[in-house]
């Protein structure tokens, strides 16, 4: 099943996000200059958390789609329907976001098939419009506020491929997001866990980094995410032993 979602991110709850490398500031500058952003990094480094945090700070609705080999043009563009004898058109997430002028999050864009990327490229060029051949040639022009953030995983990840140069050029602002330094990751954990056991948590982070390094050189398929080190610390806080938590 396609992992597709739409999210409205609004409100002013206390943030648990730690912007350790000023990614928020870079995205905001890109937003001001109407330049689309590509975030590059392995799974589990907090790419999605970064995008959600930015949308929250800007109080802008966020629509998102997670790409896979099963993502079809219709998920982006939409499909015709028949209701009580009348032919209508259900807009896909790309068309909706262009019309509404919110933030569109394209997660793992380099997992999509070529035909899907081709339709996406049409919307991302300087005209920022798309012709709906599926809806009698209707032209959808994006609102001025429309903003796109995409992520890609390294080519070592299963199911990923290089983006076509033309599509890559639509994202002139590129952020590399890797796993944070150990001391920074500990500070991230402290935002989620009230009283972490420092020595045991730091040992857990060191183990996670060892596995991440092995994954980076393809010695290991699995790479622990920041979310998992947070979960490890929460289990320790709950009285579970370090061995059982790991």
From TrEMBL:
<dbReference type="GO" id="GO:0016887">
    <property type="term" value="F:ATP hydrolysis activity"/>
</dbReference>
<dbReference type="InterPro" id="IPR003593">
    <property type="entry name" value="AAA+_ATPase"/>
</dbReference>
<dbReference type="InterPro" id="IPR050764">
    <property type="entry name" value="CbbQ/NirQ/NorQ/GpvN"/>
</dbReference>
<dbReference type="GO" id="GO:0005524">
    <property type="term" value="F:ATP binding"/>
</dbReference>
<dbReference type="InterPro" id="IPR027417">
    <property type="entry name" value="P-loop_NTPase"/>
</dbReference>
<dbReference type="Pfam" id="PF07728">
    <property type="entry name" value="AAA_5"/>
</dbReference>
<dbReference type="InterPro" id="IPR011704">
    <property type="entry name" value="ATPase_dyneun-rel_AAA"/>
</dbReference>
<protein>
    <submittedName>
        <fullName>AAA family ATPase</fullName>
    </submittedName>
</protein>
<feature type="domain" description="AAA+ ATPase">
    <location>
        <begin position="33"/>
        <end position="181"/>
    </location>
</feature>
């Amino acid at each position: 099943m396609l992992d597709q979602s739409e999210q409205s991110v609004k409100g002013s709850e206390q943030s648990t996000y730690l912007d350790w490398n000023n990614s928020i500031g870079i995205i905001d500058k890109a937003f001001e200059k109407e330049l689309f952003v590509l975030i590059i990094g392995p799974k589990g480094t907090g790419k999605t958390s970064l995008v959600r945090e930015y949308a929250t700070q800007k109080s802008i609705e966020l629509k998102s789609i997670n790409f896979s080999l099963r993502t079809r043009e219709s998920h982006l563009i939409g499909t015709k329907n028949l209701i009580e004898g009348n032919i209508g058109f259900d807009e896909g997430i790309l068309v909706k976001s262009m019309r509404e002028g919110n933030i569109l999050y394209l997660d793992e864009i380099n997992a999509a098939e070529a035909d899907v990327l081709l339709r996406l490229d049409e919307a991302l060029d300087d005209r920022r419009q798309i012709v709906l051949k599926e809806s009698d040639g209707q032209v959808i022009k994006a609102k001025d506020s429309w903003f796109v953030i995409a992520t890609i995983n390294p080519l070592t990840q299963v199911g990923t491929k290089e983006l076509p140069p033309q599509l890559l050029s639509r994202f002139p602002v590129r952020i590399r997001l890797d796993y944070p330094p150990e001391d920074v990751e500990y500070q991230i954990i402290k935002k989620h866990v009230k009283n972490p056991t420092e020595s045991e948590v730091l040992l857990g982070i060191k183990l996670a980094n060892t596995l991440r390094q092995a994954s980076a050189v393809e010695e290991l398929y699995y790479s622990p995410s920041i979310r998992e080190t947070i979960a490890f610390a929460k289990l320790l806080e709950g009285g579970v032993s370090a061995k059982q938590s790991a």
